[in-house]
Sequence to fold (372 residues):
Amino acid sequence: MTGSSGAPARSALRGGPVTVTGVAQRQAWQAREFPPVEQVRSGVWSVPVTMPQNPLRYTLAYLLLSGTGAVVVDPGWESNRGWEDLLAGLGAAGLSADRVTGIVVTHVHLDHHGLSRRLSEASGAWIAMHAAEVQNLPSRISNAVGSDGTRSWLTRCGAPAEVLAEFNDDLADILGLFRLADPDVLLADGDTLDLPGREIRVVWTPGHTPGHICLHDVDHNLLLTGDHLLPRISPNIGLTPGTQDSPLSSYLDSLRAAVGFDSAEALPAHEYRFRGIAGRAEALIKHHDARAREVLDIIAAAKRPTIWDVTTRLTWSRGWDQINGFMRRAALFETAAHIEYLERLGRLALRRGSPGEPDRLVIVPGNQQDAR
Fold:
C-alpha cells in the first residue's frame, strides 16, 4: 500500500513534458484503476478518494502528520464510498478519524471540500481555507448573484433556451453545493499551518478560484498544488456571474510565481505526482496564449458573434458535440474568461445588447500585439 513502484518515468504529456514520480499512480490512471494509498515521505501520505460518475475518477487527498495529530488536505467528494476511501487512507497511515486536528482545502469545489463537514464532525477538526475563497462558497455566490442574475448573464452571453433551462438551484441542492462547510480558520499567503514540528506554508495561487492555494512542505520540498498545476490537463479558468476580478490574468500571474518552486516535487489533487513545475507552468501559459489567439481568430472571422457563438466554435478536447449539461456552462465560463482577459488588454470590445438581447464581440482595429 505504500511507496512508489519503479523509477521515475519521463513522459511528454499534453501541454509539456514532466517527469512522473508517482509511477504507481500513473499506471493506475492509464489502466483506469484505483491508485494505491502511498507514503510519499515521512509524515506525508497520498490518499485517493472516489469522485462518483466523473471522468477524473478520484481526488488525491493528502495527510500531513505530526506527533500531535494530522491535517487532511482536500478530503474529497462527499459520498459513502469516498468516506470509506478516506478512512482506509487514514488507517493505512496508522490513524483514526479522531486523530485529525485540521482540514485544509485548496479551494471549495465539491471534489475537494465535499467531505470536510463530515470529517470535521467526526474529529472536531478545524476547517481552513484562504480568506478570498470564502465568497466563492456556492451559498455565498447564490445569495450575492441569485438565479435571476445568473440567467440574465447567460442571456447576455447568447446562451440558448435549453442552456438557460438547465440552470436551477435543485441540481445545486442535490449535489450538496449549499451544504459545503464554512471555514473556522482563514489563511493568507505565507501563513504556516498549525501543525507542530512541521513547516507547511500557504502559497496563494488565485485563478482556478479566487482563493485557491498551494501548500509548500518546506521540510521535504513538496508543493501540494491542488488544481493549480496538474501533470496532463489544464484546470478550468472561468469567469462566472458576479466575478469582479480577472481570473485568467490572476491564473497567469500565479503560474509565473509557481516557477520559483521548480526544485520541488509537485503533489497534485488529480492524476499523479511529478517534477518539472517550471516547465509545466510555462506550457500552461503557452496553452492560454494559443487559446486567446484562437478566440481572436474566431471573432475576426465571424460577424459580431456572441460569447456563446465563440464557445461553440472553439477547439475542445472532447469535441463540442460531446459536451453536454453543466459542462457546456463550464465551457462558456472558460470562454468568457479569455474574452474578459483580451478585453482588458484592449484586443477586443464587448458591445452591450439591448435589454433581453445578447452582447456582441468586435475586434479592436490596429491592436495586433501578441496576446501574452
